[in-house]
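Entry 14. Two folds queued back to back today. First construct below, sequence then structure tokens.
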Amino acid sequence: MYEVKDLTGEKAIETVDEGLRQYMIKIFNYMGLGLCITAFAAWLVVNTPLLGMMYNVNEEARTVSLSAIGWIVLLAPLFMVFGFNAILMKASASAARWMFFAFSFLMGMSCANILWSYSGESITRVFLITAATFSGMGLYGYTTKRDLTGIGSFMYMGLWGVIIASIVNIFMHSTGLYYAISYISVAVFVGLTAYDMQKLKSLYYASVNDEEGRNKIAISGALNLYLDFINLFLSLLRLLGGDRR
């Protein structure tokens, strides 16, 4: 258990534990708000003329393809993720917070087609499965004494493989590769959920005397957990969604 230098005994332990609890609550508040923004953005696209601007919808064939604007919206979150850490180093915690919310909104716009493609029952069922899986693995990562660094490194290698395979399959349209990517993605993001939770706990102890740095870590951590949840949800939806509209 970490102890603050100017305190001793039980008082020190209790102080740090309370700080850790508040820190984790802040992370999950950011993450939860990000998910709400994403859901709202997806609903907004489906229920406004934005749908026609972003997607070419064929009602008879029940198919959806991206327009030029749709491709821009689809790729924008990817570029924002790669630039987020660089901006986080220079920007204030407040600016990073708003960037995370903007990212969440764009992510919702890019995922809006799932509201059109799957029934509400399927989306709700898979969301609950995702929430249960995410909670279980997050709790494991938070409480385990095992060092998950090696697993995290392996999962990030798998993530790059998923990204590359997904880009390739945009052009190949291979059903087999589509399902293989989905299964691998589930394994990758289940592992990353546990790893990211443990990492966030360690980063708290490393930044216990740096309030601004801890606030930035909380936002970065919320982004990581948000991405774990969203990608796990999308992967499970592709496998378990089943009854497309």
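Second construct, same run, same settings:
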Amino acid sequence: MQYKSQAVAKPYFIAAIGLFVGQILFGLILGTQYLIGDFLFPAIPFNIARMVHTNLLIVWLLFGFMGAAYYLIPEESENELFSPKLALVMFWIFLVAGALTIVGYLALPYATLAKLTGNDLLETMGREFLEQPLPTKVGIVIVALAFLFNITMTVLKGKKTVISLILLLGLWGLAVFFLFSFYNPGNLVVDKFFWWWTVHLWVEGVWELIMAAILAFVLIKVTGIDREVIEKWLYVIVTLALITGIVGTGHHYYWIGTPEYWQWWGSIFSALEPIPFFAMTIFAFNMVNRRRRDHPNRAAVLWALGTGVMAFLGAGVWGFLHTLAPVNFYTHGSQITAAHGHMAFYGAYVMINLTIISYAMPILRGRAANDNKSQVVEMWAFWLMTVSIVFITLFLTAAGILQVWLQRISDTPMDFMVVQSQIAPFYWMRLVTGVIFLVGLVVYLASFFVGGGKEERAA
């Protein structure tokens, strides 16, 4: 059964895809600047391009999560959304605030932006991934509280399911841990200690709950498997994710001045972090293999399966490669870190957003699934983007291994910039595959406009 208020998810999904395009464009600018240092300088310096690239990533993923919640919560709770109007008002506030922040990054020197936005009153800016001006951070909190109020009230007045409750837990955790972005102590060790409470406990903690809930919802819809079976898997995955993710935060504490026991705690529990991702992969394939019906949206099934595989490879395997303290001692902050970050974000969070968008958007447009031509184009986009990110990861891994050897292990270590020139061929290959990724994203956008055919009522 469809609910009228689910329509508020549509603008969130559209904004998410638009911001995704912006993120990739700035990623290509960064890739070019690695090779041509003064590319677009002084209009877009490297540090500004990187801020825009990472901030757009965070914001578009949040738009996707919010759209997913607004779509699936009414269906799970068997109730209309508490306030569709509030959802739409918060959408425009969030979108305008995000756009103005990006304009501020590009139009003003960062120090000037900090001064104009009240950073002297409460110093929160200047930290990686949390560069947003104070008004933007406050705006994010307001939007998050209104969003959480809206979906929590919807759940409270309707049916409570495991999927909706896990999604709520993840989203509330997202909001709570973001509050640590306002805490910026003068001591660098303390600063970094709590900085990870936002950055790590988002992506390796509560975001995993959001991903698991969305994936479970889509799998129920496209496979027809009994809800009880999927819920049992969810309990296992969520428990493993929380235990390994929370204590595994310690793998960031090795070398910042914290007690040495974090080398053991961080190494052991972060080494266990691939387990929930592996469980998620088995879960996805098991559900699809046991499906009771062949859903017409084959593209959504492909995205769902891809999410499990790529999340395991990026967050699990590539995370494990350099998580143990004796290895991380050499690899921390190298291109190996970048390799892990690119595949992990794509596999876990980019793909789960594209999964729910692929499933929900045809229904929001009045059909159970896009026609065959549109789905074929979308599946081409899947393979172009996924294969590209695999090669980007491999090239960055090779660059990182050579970087670590030449700069940190060799008996005659080279200077940083000398090493960068040595690994430049890998940067060229990374840039070429980045262009192919953009082509895949353009093909994905095209899938929304090709085909057509007879519209059918969503099942």
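Quick look at the second one. The chain has a mean pLDDT of 94. The CA atoms of residues 17 and 60 lie 7 Å apart.
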